[in-house]
Amino acid sequence: MKTIIKLLVAAVILNATVRLGLSTWQQYQFKDTVQQAILFGGSESPAQLKEQIMEEAAEAGVPLAAGDVTVERHGMLTTAEATYVDEIELFPRYVYPMTWSFKVDARRIEGQ
């Protein structure tokens, strides 16, 4: 009986760890995608970049609302900020709301 309980506890911990790890991996991939979008989108307007980020979020399955992302350009510097809540089911019927937030920026370099 002790062995079964230990196995169940181990399975619960492993399940929670894997789900949290997958959410973390998804966040890092999405942050990298946003970084690439603003790095190589120097000729696009901030509104176009925001739209592109929203499309990437939909493709990646990131629960990002339009009001949760801002893209600003000040001269040669473009900055994007995003915040979203990913609901991770750590245990059956127990959902943990994990808030992810990041800010990335890129400088545009003009050619000669």
Write the SSE topology.
Layout: H1 2-40, H2 46-60, E1 69-74, E2 77-91, E3 94-107
Antiparallel strand pairs: 1-2, 2-3
Helix pairs in contact: 1-2
How confident overall, as mean pLDDT?
A: 91
Tally of individual helices: 2
User: How many separate structural domains?
Assistant: 1
**What profile does the largest beta sheet have?**
3 strands, antiparallel
User: Gyration radius, to the nearest Å?
Assistant: 19 Å
- Count of DSSP E strands? 3
Low-confidence stretches: none
Biggest sheet strand order reads: 1-2-3
Share of helix, binned: 40-55%
Q: What proportion of the residues form beta strands (DSSP E)?
A: 25-35%
Termini, distance in Å? 75 Å
* Structural class by helix and strand composition: alpha+beta
Q: What is the H-and-E element order?
A: HHEEE
Form type:
elongated
Describe this structure in words.
The model has no long low-confidence stretch (mean pLDDT 91). 48% of the residues lie in helices and 31% in strands. It has two helices and three strands, in the order H-H-E-E-E. The protein has one domain. It has helices spanning 2-40, 46-60; strands spanning 69-74, 77-91, 94-107. It has a three-stranded antiparallel β-sheet with strand order 1-2-3, with helices on one face. The chain is elongated. It has 112 residues and is of the alpha+beta class. Helix 1 (2-40) runs antiparallel to helix 2.
Would you kindly provide a brief summary of this structure?
This protein is α+β, with helices and mostly antiparallel strands.
